[in-house]
Write a structure and sequence with these properties.
heterodimer, A: mainly alpha, Rna Polymerase Sigma Factor, Chain: A, 9 helices, B: about 140 residues, mainly alpha, 6 helices, about 80% helix, about 0% strand
Chain lengths: ~190, ~140
């Protein structure tokens, strides 16, 4: 069933799931789990919590599937659930873990890819700086930036996920970029 | 664009921001930007910094999800009752409640004349239940 479903679009998989074909939802889970996990990780910055929240997101989506309009895009709908799940977690826990535990403590969370070692070290360093600067931003700013530039989502999808107009998303991104620039390069200009 | 008069640096940054948002600029706007960047070191530096930030974000490594987590999610989903089964259970529960309520009021009205009042109360309760159910269905249709 899973192999048959991989070619189907999201709407068809939702329909299959609503008809009781469990394999349809498995394809959706496999298709979006990495995206959902990474979006949530950027929000909560903790691998264990990101895994729990990923599971919670897919459960909530499954429970709400009958309310999903088949003609609507599934990805923004799923990411809206992930966003609200992450925000609720942050509200309840009132804590944000540092990145210290990142790779060393969780080998299973090793990033995918990796080619030339030297290039990889340079890239990781630059990403570590960006990651650190992002961590200093309010969660809302960070979330919008990650959706746009790390996951390449169009403005319209981000607007649907955040439930704000496109103009607000553009304005937020403008502010985030400027704050990141000042944070990352401000000292160099002195 | 917005009708305001920018200094050349502000105008260049605004156009570069626009290019980041829209992906492209008109040919004459692009020519203005390129011309300004050649002669303005701070703006050229600003552009490079913005490009570095976006490039670093786009190159960010994504964490893979373990098969163990996938199986955990799928197991949790399997334990969930299906949507149709849940809906049928809800409708069934509602019918049982309504039948029980109606039974109580029928017996009550037979026992005394004041049973007429009980009928009125019962009717009001059923109307409230109907309103709640209708509201829930409307909410479901609007959701998602």
């Amino acid at each position: 069933m899973r192999d048959q479903g991989v070619d189907l679009d999201d709407g068809a998989l939702v329909s299959l799931t609503l008809k009781g074909e469990g394999g349809g939802y498995e394809v959706l889970v496999r298709r979006y789990q990495k995206l959902v996990y990474n979006v949530l990780y950027e929000m909560v910055r903790n691998h264990e919590s990101a895994a729990d929240l990923t599971q919670e997101t897919f459960l909530k989506a499954f429970r709400g599937l009958s309310r999903f309009r088949p003609d609507a895009p599934f990805k923004p709908w799923l990411l809206r659930i992930a966003t609200n799940t992450g925000l609720n977690w942050m509200r309840d826990s009132k804590r944000e873990d540092s990145l210290d535990e990142m790779l060393e403590d969780n080998p299973a969370a090793e990033p995918a890819g990796g080619q030339d070692v030297e290039a990889e070290v340079c890239r990781r360093l630059s990403q570590a700086q960006l990651s650190e600067a992002l961590a200093q931003l309010p969660a809302r700013y960070r979330h919008v930036f990650v959706l746009r530039y790390q996951h390449d989502l169009p403005y319209e999808d981000i607007a649907a996920i955040i439930e704000e107009p496109v103009t607000t998303i553009k304005s937020l991104l403008h502010r985030v970029r400027e704050r990141l620039r000042k944070s990352l390069f401000g000292k160099m200009e002195l | 664009m917005n009708g305001s008069v920018d200094n050349p640096c502000d105008k260049t940054k605004r156009l570069l921001e626009l290019r980041m948002d829209e992906g492209a600029l008109a040919a004459d706007e692009m020519a203005d930007v390129e011309s300004h960047l050649k002669s303005c070191k701070p703006c050229a530096q600003w552009q490079r910094q913005m490009q570095d930030i976006v490039a670093a974000a786009r190159a960010s490594a994504q964490f893979d999800v373990s098969e163990a987590l996938t199986q955990r999610i799928l197991s949790a989903v399997e334990r969930e009752p299906s949507g149709k089964a849940a809906s049928a259970a809800q409708v069934g529960s509602m019918l049982v409640l309504l039948a029980a309520g109606a039974g109580v009021f029928v017996v009550d009205s037979i026992e005394s004349l004041s049973g007429l009042g009980s009928w009125c109360v019962g009717l009001a309760v059923m109307l409230v239940i109907q309103t709640i159910v209708a509201g829930g269905q409307a909410g479901n249709q609007a959701g998602g």
